[in-house]
Amino acid sequence: MDNVTLTINDIKVTVEKGATILDAAKKVGVRIPTLCHHEDLCVAGNCRVCVVEQKGARALQASCAVPAAEGMQIYTNTKKVREARKTIIELLLSEHAGECTSCYRSGNCELQAIAQEYLADGDAFIDVADMTEIDISSPAIVKDDSKCIKCTRCVRTCAELQGVSALWAINKGNHTKISTFMSKPMHYVVCTNCGQCINRCPTGALTERNYIQDVWSAIDDPEVHVVVQTAPAVRVGLGEALGMEPGRVVTGKMAAALRKLGFDSVLDTDFSADLTIMEEGTELLVRLKEALAEKKNVALPMMTSCSPGWIKFIEHQYPELLDNLSTCKSPQQMFGALAKTYYAKKKGVDPSKMISVSIMPCTAKKFEAARPEMNSSGFQDVDYVLTTRELGHMIRQAGIDFENLQDEKFDTIMGESTGAAVIFGATGGVMEAALRTAYEIVTGREVPFANLNIEPVRGMDGIKSAAVKIEKVKPEWSFLEGAELKVAIAHGLVNADKLMKEIEAGKSPYHFIEIMACPGGCIGGGGQPIPTSPEIRKKRAEAIYVADSELPIRKSHENPEIQMIYKDFLHEPLGHHSHELLHTHYTPRRNVK
Amino acid sequence: MSNTDKNEILNKMQERVNLIFKNSDCSAILDKALTMKQDDIIKSVTDSGLRGRGGAGFPTGLKWKGAAAASGNIKYIICNADEGEPGTFKDRRILEEEADKVITGMAICAYAVGVSEGYIYLRGEYNFMKDKLQGECDKWNDKFKSKKLNFTVNVRSGAGAYVCGEETALIESMEGRRGEPRNKPPFPVGAGYMNEPTVVNNVETLAYVATIIDKGADYFKSIGTKDSMGGKVFSVSGDCAVKGIYELPLGMTMQEFVDLFGDGDTKAVQVGGASGTCVPRKNFATTVIGFEGVPTGGSMMLFNSKRSMFNALRNYLEFFEEESCGQCTPCRVGCQQLLKGIEAIRSGERPVSYIEELRKLAVTMSVASKCGLGQSVASPFNSITEHFREEICY
Ligand SMILES: Cc1cc2nc3c(=O)[nH]c(=O)nc-3n(C[C@H](O)[C@H](O)[C@H](O)COP(=O)(O)O)c2cc1C
Ligand code: SF4
Q: pTM score, two decimals?
């Protein structure tokens, strides 16, 4: 690789050819402010706050977009640069309806931070904010154009990471805005509700629809029994929302905080993640049996269904492949259906007086909970979905000293879980958990990987694949003897799309595919603390695997509460009750609905 | 000067240049080029001193040399016929009357640079001539075949925005995307259309190439001045005694120009269209029309003393506010602020001193915008507000 040498503020630095001025500055510890730049996305170079002066050049250079060149002399802190940056920030403020005292992103807003840094005057220019009515059509995502600074991070996220392109720049000049197909409301376009755009929005233009007030009201109501479930990835993200560094596992503190907030039952989605493995693992084995032993025409590869952003994606883009989806509900919805039936009965709570809240790293879960079919308990199974960020807000509002909380445990009988459930939070985790159980069901032995860690399915490659040889099976699984189970994992819908194209072309070699809508899996979910970056997601994933390795039980089928629910209530995977409560169907949405 | 005198001088001057609109045998010009060495053609174009006639004035020979040296799977030439600059209408006439020269210029580039595909990016509003122009292309494509030149040329319809005349926005729009300028580098000569080396030249530039090969670089050089060689096709409009399209030598003073075209009461000339510079009467004698003074893509708008420069500036700003592609902050928001700003000063909502803030803003736009559109708004804004401050503020 060729190198180039340049100077940044007279400091000599050598970088690889192709690196930008911004990269070079970073290398010598010079921070340059940015807004449209994002590590996960391609270069835009449109906000212009990263401009620097190049000796001999008339115009300033956008350091995020201009490649470092041999002999360049760059100055990042001249009068010309400072004044230009301040003016640019003031221009952005003039098209941004600043409501910093009430804005959901206040304190976590990149525009606010940079404006403060440059002491920019919000009234330097005339107010030109786009006062289009706030779009609250979607149960998951709120779009407020008055706060949009047109950095196009959301557009690039939706196109590059998700391959969806629900958001796009429309019009030009003073009418430029980020909008949807035919400017339809967010609920009526191909948006998957994944919330990745929110994670990368520098301001409060895109946020989750927040239900904090509704949840407080439920808690405040003495008549109502409020149960709360917490998804696997929340425990490795919540700390960040409360000022802790990325990668801290805060399961115990979270349970303690939820109790302090006043939730009546503090339970764990991990329980239903284990349950998902029992149901989905069995479903896979049944499909394999039908395909291999009975030579039936069944849809393979089977695909996971835990990620509601992914579900909406496939409903829109590949409705003809819906049969390939596992019929299992997501852990959130399995939990919701059981909370108002099994749990209510066991605990003697009137399900009509129960409010079921879930804490999710996800915004699509809000949409999922509101799907009309999600009422198998006879009520809406999950009433409110809060993101990790919303929970962080509630904990702050309650004045809880989160970092110094003593660890507490979840309540029983839907609070016990295994390491297999925890790893649902990272890409590859569902696959790993499923293999740990399915392999053992079929062979009676543990999966042949050291310490149960199935390394090939871990990590941040967009698409991963693995093959597991199945040998010395139990007699009832003889048709699988010697078979090689081929699996693949994709995260980020743009990667999912590649696997779908492969299936469409009849070239998919796989039996089982795990798909998570969000980069990194749920740890990188659209409801997780902002900012996100490859580094942050890596730390969260590492924390997930540490949490797994530290748990005494690491296989779903060994969870005692799971064994109990099958004994007392469900009887067997894919049984009658399971079908009623734990499985679902899908809606083709080729024509956007 | 009487009108007959004026006409006589004008005719003489036009006669002296008379390159673009003169009948020539383009087939013979191409044959001549095809007998030359590629390097010699590029050298000849370089020696002629020809600089881009699209507005930016980049030396054409240098551009071609860059493209010739660039490596790619295929190379393209695009004739920029987007002609969107307010007050410019010369490319239209050249294409209507002298398409042969333009296509020949493209073919000469193809031969010299190693280009095999060419496109004429035709302004959407010029669609009325699209079929005829495509007909010319087809005719020439047959000729290229018979001359064993591996080159084809076709017409592409423009996307309808002013910014699509900016070469990288033009390329984006040709590739089917929003017409938004790209980050540079890379420049089109290295990575342009379809990411391959691409020469983008203005209609007039390419027509001049044909005449340079025909008459020689020295002839071309003999017209104009040291810094502004050759002729230039001007689009003259506004409060004029005579208006229209004239091919004149570069390097005239504004006084000479106004004497020829003005109505005797000219107070200002807007040179180079909305994105150009306003020259007030007091500077006419000292201002040279050319790269050493005020460069122009061809538009010359004359204003007499009855005109309000506030209205003129507001009109330009309304244009920019709408025609900014909208991607970069300084231009998208800056154009709106300049327009709203002068209106607010007029209405008393902002103090007169706010004009200084706006002038500073324009300077920031000129150094921090992503492309030539946002960068050039300061030219009209700061020249008009400098010379006609009272008209703008009161
Ligand atoms: C906003 C904007 C609009 C432009 N419009 C045109 C145009 O209509 N025609 C043109 O030839 N060049 C136009 N240009 C200049 C082109 O980017 C480019 O420099 C030119 O086509 C190169 O050809 P030349 O070197 O032969 O002039 C425009 C530039 C900008 C920034
Ligand atoms: S300067 Fe204007 S036209 Fe050019 S890229 Fe920026 S917004 Fe677009």
A: 0.96
